[in-house]
Amino acid sequence: MGTIKIKNIHKHFGKFHALKGIDLTIHNGEFMTLLGPSGCGKTTFLRILAGLEDPSEGDITIDDKEIVCVSKHLSLPAAERNLNLVFQSYALWPHLTVFENVAFGLKIKKMPKETIKQKVQETLERLQIAHLSDRSPGELSGGQQQRVAIARAIVTEPKILLLDEPLSNLDAKLRIEMRSELKRLHHELKTTIVYVTHDQVEALTLSTRIAVFFEGKLVQVDTPQQLYKYPQDLRVAQFIGNPTVNCVEAKVNDEQMTISSPLSSFSYKTKIGLPTVTLATNPENIEIVHESVPGAIKAEVYSVLPAGSETYIQVKVPQTKTILSIKEMGEALYEIGSTVWIKTNIERLNIFDPGSNGKIDIQLRPVISGQIERTKIDLQLSKTFSIGTFS
Ligand SMILES: Nc1ncnc2c1ncn2[C@@H]1O[C@H](COP(=O)(O)OP(=O)(O)OP(=O)(O)O)[C@@H](O)[C@H]1O
C-alpha cells in the first residue's frame, strides 16, 4: 500500500510563499508526476513528502498514518516514512562498488548476508546492470549510474518512490530508453511513484496522472490524455504539447452570441460577458485542405519543418498576421509562400478567459463563417452541432 493524502500544504521561505495550499491525493500504485516550470515549487513539495523539509502549514498521511501535522508539531523523520528518494544527481557513494551501493540499505536493516546477496542480484538483473556489479561509480556512464541509483532505491521495496528529475542529466537517446525502463519497472513493481519533472513529454509518456504546478499552486490534476485535450487553465494549455498549442485572441459579440477569430468563428448559447477570449487548439486539430471548402480559412505557408515521421507546418493568416502551427503525419510537401486553406476542428477547441486564465465552458454552435471575409456559407453537420445557414 502507498496512498498519500496531502491537505492544505503551505511553505514559506521567509517572506516568500513557495507553496500556497496544496491539496492532493496520490493513490496506491499511481505514477504521479509533478509538472511545472522552473521555480513553481515541485521540488519543495517533493522534499516535504520525503521529510527533508517541513511545511509551514498542513497535513500529510500515508495509508491513513499521520506523517506530518503542523498544528500538532508532528513530522516523522524521513527514515520512518517507508519511502525512498532518487535525486537528479545520482548521489552514489564513490568508494563503494555497484553491489555495495545497492546493498547498503539492506545492510542497515541488518538483513542476513545471503538474503542481501539474492535481493541485490535480482535488482541488478531487473535493471540490466548485473555485469557491472564490481565496478565503482566512477567507472560507469551517466545512464548506468542512474540505473544504480534506481536499483538502490527499489531494493528495499519501499511503498513509495520519489524521483526528482532523475533523467535530466542523460542525453536525449538515453532519456528515451530510461523512460521506457521506468515505465516497465512501475508496471512490474506496482510501487507508488511521485516523479518531478519540467519536461512535459516525460510527464505525458510516463504518468498515470499529472499534477501541474504554477507559482506555488496546483492548477490541474488529470490523466495525460485529459490534460492534453482539455486543459482547464490557459497556462496548462501553453505548457503541454509539442509544438505548443495555437492560441489566438477572439472577439466576443455577446449581442449576437458570436465569437470571431483568425482560427474559426462560431456562435454560442449562453452569454460570456467578456469582450475577448483566448482560443487554444493543438497543432493536429488544424487540417490543411487544398481548396476553399466550407469552414476553411485562407492562409499562406510560412515554414515547413519535416521531422521524419511527421511534418510541422506553420501558416500565416494574412489579414491578421497570426501564425499557426499544424502537425501532419508523414511527409508533407508544401511550398513556402504558397496559398492553402486551413480548417479547425472546433470540437477540439478550448476557450479561456485571458484575465483569469480559467477555462470557459460554453456550448458551441456551428461554424458561422470560415472565411475572414464573411460570405454566405453552408454549415457543417456534426454530431454535436446543428445545421443551418448564416450570411
Ligand atoms: N531554501 C530556500 N530558501 C528560499 N527560497 C527557496 C528555497 N528553496 C526553494 N526556494 C524558492 O522556492 C521556489 C520553488 O522552488 P523549487 O525548487 O521547489 O522549484 P521547482 O519547481 O522544483 O524548480 P526547478 O524545476 O527549477 O527545480 C523558487 O522560487 C525557489 O527560489
From TrEMBL:
- Which range is the signal sequence, renumbered to this chain? none
Q: Which residues form a coiled coil?
A: none
**A GO molecular-function annotation:** ATP hydrolysis activity
**InterPro entries tied to this protein:** AAA+_ATPase, ABC_transporter-like_ATP-bd, ABC_transporter-like_CS, ABC_transpr_MalK/UgpC-like, Mo/tungstate-bd_C_term_dom, NA-bd_OB-fold, P-loop_NTPase, Transp-assoc_OB_typ2
Residue span, ABC transporter domain: 4-240
Q: Does the keyword Nucleotidyltransferase apply?
A: no
Cell membrane as UniProt keyword: yes
Q: Which Gene3D superfamilies match?
A: 2.40.50.100, Nucleic acid-binding proteins, P-loop containing nucleotide triphosphate hydrolases
Which UniProt keywords are listed?
ATP-binding, Cell membrane, Membrane, Nucleotide-binding, Translocase, Transport
UniProt GO cellular component terms? ATP-binding cassette (ABC) transporter complex, substrate-binding subunit-containing
Task: List the SUPFAM superfamilies.
Answer: MOP-like, P-loop containing nucleoside triphosphate hydrolases
Q: By what name is this protein known?
A: ABC transporter
